[in-house]
Amino acid sequence: MKQKDVIKETKYNAGFTIIELLVSMGLFTIVISLGVAVFIAGLNRQKTVTEFINVNENLNLVMEQVVRELRTGDTFEKRSTPNLGTACSIPLIEKIVFINDVGDRVRYFMCQVGTGANTDRGIAFKGGPDMGPGSNAPVERLTPSSMFITRMNIEIRNEAEDDVAPLITIAACARSKRPGLEQFETCIQNSVSARDVD
């Protein structure tokens, strides 16, 4: 009989009370919630950084393509002209026009399609052997549709016949179209000197 009493006492002395159990469950829930919140915030931040890197790399690739062709070009002109048909609807487009290394007249410019919330803007290319007035050569967009070019500026120095190679500077800024990332902008500026002297 004494053995039974000892077991009974042990039974009553071990374990948690209801209050202790509720408090521990509440603390566990709070700690898990904080951990999940930090994990989700980290995932969102990682997506933001990845998107920013993608915009930066895409803009850098386009600028390198433009600079590579400018380096071997000749007869450079900076123009602001009316739109280029249905492919671009912005009233004035700043662009650079030149003769490339195979003798084709090419243009690199900022192209905008649409207005308001549906605006899409990118860096485009138009070129070929038939680039005279009224040319219907296709406009080729170089930047992906997932990014938006906020501004583009072109400067040409040493244009005159002064035995100095032209120096062309192109600056462009871009951002992602993904919602919530509009405030993150990356800008790249490249300067290139043409190989041929005026």
Question: What does this molecule look like?
Answer:
The chain has 198 residues and is an alpha+beta fold. The chain has one domain. The chain is built from 2 helices and 8 strands, in the order ααββββββββ. The chain has a 5-stranded antiparallel beta sheet, covered by helices on one side. The chain is elongated, with a radius of gyration of 31 Å. The model has no long low-confidence stretch (mean pLDDT 79).
**Cα shape:** elongated
Please tell me the overall pLDDT.
79
* Number of strand segments: 8
Helix content estimate:
25-40%
* Strand arrangement, major sheet: 1-2-3-4-5
Kindly give the count of domains. 1
Q: Which band does the percent of strand residues land in? A: 25-35%
Biggest β-sheet description: 5 strands, antiparallel
What is the number of helices?
2
Low-confidence segments: none
Termini, distance in Å?
115 Å
Q: Nearest-angstrom radius of gyration? A: 31 Å
Keywords: Membrane, Transmembrane, Transmembrane helix
Protein name: Prepilin-type N-terminal cleavage/methylation domain-containing protein
Pfam families: N_methyl (PF07963)
InterPro entries: N_methyl_site (IPR012902)
Task: Summarize, please.
With 198 residues, this protein is of the alpha+beta class.
Task: Kindly list the characteristics that best describe this protein.
198 residues, alpha+beta, five-stranded antiparallel sheet, three-stranded antiparallel sheet, 2 helices, transmembrane
